[in-house]
Amino acid sequence: MLYVADRLPWINRFTAKIKSPQIQVLLVLTASIGLVSTPVGQLINQATTAVDGFVDGLAGEWTGFGITFALALAALIWLISDFVNGVKARTLLLAAFTPTLTVMIPGVLGEGASKALGFIATQVGSLVMWLMGG
Length: 134
Known about the structure:
- By secondary structure, this protein is mostly helical.
- It has helices spanning 2-7, 12-17, 20-36, 39-59, 63-85, 89-103, 108-131.
């Protein structure tokens, strides 16, 4: 797919502005978003919320939320920074794990993130289908 994405005649104008490694990051990010927008993402959020509820008495009510939110936000900022300043090997890892970290935020915020990521995956899929004439 990466090979084809760089060589499609109607996408040349788009790919001329975005380098191939950046396309790879976008494809990995889209795949990861697609995965966490399935029931797997909801299961991850429910499990994280359950663990957070268990440790609330030990570590404080907002500790799990704060730690997970900070990790997800840091990963997102780092991903954007790498994407803009030059793709590295860690950028692909960040693209793969940032959506998962986002869904791991306990409670309603993580559940909302899962639904929002599902909406993004649906829109990207629709765009790809439209570009391919489907």
